[in-house]
Amino acid sequence: MIILIPPSERKSQANNSLITFKSTNSPFSNQIEIILSKLNDLDQNAVNKLYGTSFEKSRNIHRANLEILNQNCSPAIDRYEGVVYQNLQPSSLDSTSKKYLFDHIRITSAFMGLISPDTLIPYYKLKMGSLNLAKFWNPIFSKSLEQEDLIIDLLPQIHRKSYTLGKATITVDFKIKKGGKTISSGHMGKAIKGKFIRFLIQNQIENIRDMKEFNEDGFIWDSHNSAFYRTP
């Protein structure tokens, strides 16, 4: 069983390892080189559009991305610091839970590939919606996942396009029922997703039946819609 989660835009710039990224021998090194080549071919206008920030910030981000092979690394679980990861609270997990984390969690990174939480990665900034990367990674991620008997997909929509969903996949969303309508859980959804991942890890969940027992912050599984709902 594999649990797919997204990376986070917020990342720690600290490096916990002296190992440079080019020394990690990433299984996706060929794909990363292709992405680096695509980035290197961009003119300044395209760079500004890619990162969506000021000229100076875009230039600095772009320069750092182009230098990732020579940058020192941290494990992905330490690099990513967004809301999902804050609520997952990886540093507080015991050794049994951390083994489950490393064995079952996979992160769909637009730059690094399909990685485990203990994969050493450099600091970078690149979104899955950029450079048509979801389409680029789709055949590669799909091939990596094709033998899995169960895939729990906790990805946002753009990341779901980075692989081909099959019969072994169950997509899990968190929604709110309000005024007769169903709306996105927004920022709350990221927090509850992190708590849900922690629930899977701490309870060593291996099947869909046990997954549905999650009940926190008012979110309850709705089998008819294959999602967790909360009614305010």
A few lines on this structure:
This protein is of the alpha/beta class. 39% of the residues lie in helices and 17% in strands.
Strand order of the largest sheet: 4-3-1-6-7
How far from one another are the termini?
33 Å
Strand-pairing-aware structural class = alpha/beta
Strand content: 15-25%
Radius of gyration: 18 Å
Order of helices and strands: EHHHEHHHEEEHEHEEEHHEE
Structurally, the number of domains stands at 1
- Main β sheet profile: 5 strands, mixed
Helix content: 25-40%
Tally of individual helices: 10
Model regions low in confidence, pLDDT < 50 over at least 5 residues = none
The gross shape turns out to be globular
Mean pLDDT: 95
SS elements, strand count: 11
Architecture overview:
This protein has 232 residues and is α/β, with parallel strands linked by helices. It has one domain. Helix content is 39%, strand content 17%. It is built from 10 helices and 11 strands.
